[in-house]
């Protein structure tokens, strides 16, 4: 049975150097120098060992007992806790730090465009729960995030953020930070709704009207943007494929755009023939953006 109470821990933390047992190897240590901390003694391969769990102020009594039980589970599975990454480094991890950890260990390695999930997190999640500890985040927080995005008229982003939240909680579970995923009970119906492919296309008349408006407002809609829109309409490529294209991809002498597989959704090299009008637009744009390494960031 546990021996310590919260009141006793608070008194000990302000007292003299001591090491007080809570039972089953868990102790509260007040060192001669430094901050009080939680420690767990255990036996592994017939050797007595000791591991620090976290400092007083970072771990409550209940949390220390929980961390101690996680370590005991590792030992029962034949894993030496001292050979695994420090549990202390993850105790009290905020949601912002959780995202940073997943970004470094998973997103950067697996995503072709890691800036996309980072942008979605920073713009839609961080301000809501980034400062909270992972275990403090509830289903209410998740619902509020999804409702805020959906009510702003961005249903697709809402669905994407729900997927991102599920990934983050799964990552937290893998690290042993939490055993709960508050986002798991939500589906796309609770976010932006079931997405359907768009069938709507612009008519020739609508395109003509749009470009007429662009020309009338050239003081605010610059010639650079106008040319990029012309290229998007005529080439029919994804916006990111065009505006992120370095100039070296364009062979204007032979009127061909060599789009490498690293930048295509299909992961296939594509060579796109360029009509003379497009070559003229690109030549003008290249002169206008002489200091830019790529076509244009709208």
UniProtKB/TrEMBL annotation:
Family: Belongs to the 'phage' integrase family.
Entry keywords, A to Z: DNA integration, DNA recombination, DNA-binding
GO molecular function: DNA binding
Organism this protein belongs to: Pseudoalteromonas caenipelagi
UniProt cross-references to InterPro entries, sorted A to Z: DNA_brk_join_enz, Integrase-like_cat_sf, Integrase_catalytic, Integrase_DNA-bd_sf, Integrase_DNA_bind_dom, Integrase_recombinase_N, Phage_int_M, Phage_Integrase
Keyword Ligase included in the entry's annotation: no
Keyword Lipid metabolism: no
Name recorded for this polypeptide: Integrase arm-type DNA-binding domain-containing protein
One GO process term, biological-process aspect: DNA recombination
Entry-linked Pfam families: Arm-DNA-bind_3, Phage_int_M, Phage_integrase
Gene3D superfamilies on file: 1.10.150.130, Integrase, DNA-binding domain (3.30.160.390), Intergrase catalytic core (1.10.443.10)
Tyr recombinase domain segment(s): 197-298
